[in-house]
Amino acid sequence: MKRSMTAFARRGRDVLPPGQRRLRDRVRAAGFWAASLVAGALLASNLTGAQGGFRLLEATIDDAHAAFASGELTCRALVQGYLDRIAAYDQTGPSLNAVQTINRDALAQADELDAAYGEGGITGPLHCVPVLLKDQVETREMPTTYGSALFDGFVSGRDATIVVRLEEAGAIILAKTNMGEFASRYVGSAFGIIRNAYDPARNPSGSSGGTGTGVAANFGLVGIGEDTGGSIRGPAAVHSLVGLRPTVPLVSRFGMMPANPSSDTLGPMTRTVRDAALVLDAIAGYDPNDPVTAYAAGRGPDSYAAALDAADLRGARIGVIRYAMDPRTDPETDGYRQVRAVIDRALDDLRSHGAVVVDPVAVADLELAQQTYVANNFETEAATNAYLAEHRGTPVRSLRSILLSGVVTPWRAAGLLDVVGRSTGDAAYLPILQARERLRRNVLTAMADHELDALAYATFDHPPALIAPDVLTNPRTVDAYALGNNRYLSPVIGFPALTVPAGLTADGLPVGLELLGRPFDEAGLLGLGYAYEQATGRREPPPTTPALAP
């Protein structure tokens, strides 16, 4: 595994990314001058709260920006605080193995942002927000491995659109996070096994497991995941995080290796709903490099964050899906009963804070969610080959070559074999499209019949399973991964879904409450999630990664 941890900039060049340079230059050109920030990094005690009010553990974007304004905090100190936590917990201590590559210029970029702040104040809504980015997304000067040793050291030389937009908003890409190899599960030949921050013996869900573990462990302020079949919401649910899977056209996928383009999307993974909304404000919108985003033009509010209201549960109508969408779900187990107790409490919380909860709501043909997602292996090969063709210097040029390399972990290789030789031109793809449209209509019909604002269900009906000892070597490992999985409904129909922390089971494992809405109603989902979060405060940080000593 190759990990770059150089803590200083290469001399003789501007270390700021283009987006941040444009922001800095606009600040300088505007002629704003203010007193400079306190020179140098703050003492560690400022980051732990021993002195002053800022605490790094569980900090939000608003917390950091308030501390910048008060002079308690510099961007350099914030970035260093997260680097210290990565050093303490990622490869030592609980050895969570969430991080693949650290941005060697992060501290130098922080210094530039501190200088810009001293000249003209905040550079953007995400000023000095350290981001953990799933390693499926390209960064022009950092390697992108897709979780595979096959791509060790591969640098594409371009930034994904989402990276450009984050940096233009003032953010710093602090690190690339480990991901299930080629976007499935939580293991990869590039790194081994990602571990759950609440119990390192358990799986972290996937495939955005590194981002989920890292954000939960406070390795960064916010994170970015990718969701084809649940890879944002799964790791968010098992890590007491907020995870938003947007409507497919809302966020550009340009610069991201695809899996199934009809359901691939990128979105925020954060510790609070407001932080998720602030990130979405920065990344949503039309991008000519991903033409599907044209469908999103004019479909969202001016600001998702500004629209949040702690009173949004009052009068909201939320329907409850009790149907187990995973045929493996076992209501007779203790794990199921523990999760159900947490979800039932969450539903009571919704009622007690003004929502009308319609329980249960039946959606016709709901079994199609699982069946249709699993059957759709027609898009991957052509999409992967087209993506690889965009780059020079890739170690392979096709999905078949990836498989022939012999590098991919056995379980992932076995799964990829199922997509070779299939295409969307196959006659068998038509039933996939028909089932998708049928299920969309049935969901909208149920919501219309009951006048619902959202549907609610557990992201998983079971807690995360223990990691099997042969998970890296057995192509047919049996580890109960994703048992009780209810994530497929959203990607199959393309509607947005938001997972929010519902609390911990009796065994101390997080449970996610998932809310699904109509297309492009991210504002409505975020509003409901925000009101629930503000009323309940169910997020609890993992015990394995406490605050560092001053």
What does this structure look like?
- With 550 residues, the protein is α/β, with parallel strands linked by helices.
- 33% of the residues lie in helices and 11% in strands.
- The protein has 17 helices and 13 strands.
- The chain has helices at 18-30, 44-48, 61-70, 75-89, 106-120, 161-168, 209-216, 233-237, 273-283, 334-352, 368-375, 380-389, 399-404, 410-417, 429-449, 489-493, 522-536; strands spanning 99-102, 130-134, 172-177, 187-188, 192-193, 222-227, 242-245, 265-270, 317-320, 356-358, 454-458, 497-504, 510-516.
- It has an eleven-stranded mixed β-sheet, sandwiched between helices.
- Strand 12 and strand 13 form a beta hairpin.
- Helix 1 runs parallel beside helix 5 and helix 11 runs antiparallel to helix 15.
- The longest helix has 21 residues, at 429-449.
- The chain starts with 17 loop residues before the first helix and ends in a 14-residue tail after the last helix.
- Residues 1-13 and 22-46 have low confidence and may be disordered.
In short:
This protein has 17 helices and 13 strands. The chain is an alpha/beta fold.
Produce the secondary structure layout.
Blueprint: H1 18-30, H2 44-48, H3 61-70, H4 75-89, E1 99-102, H5 106-120, E2 130-134, H6 161-168, E3 172-177, E4 187-188, E5 192-193, H7 209-216, E6 222-227, H8 233-237, E7 242-245, E8 265-270, H9 273-283, E9 317-320, H10 334-352, E10 356-358, H11 368-375, H12 380-389, H13 399-404, H14 410-417, H15 429-449, E11 454-458, H16 489-493, E12 497-504, E13 510-516, H17 522-536
Parallel strand pairs: 2-3, 2-6, 9-10, 9-11
Antiparallel strand pairs: 1-3, 4-5, 6-8, 7-8, 7-12, 11-13, 12-13
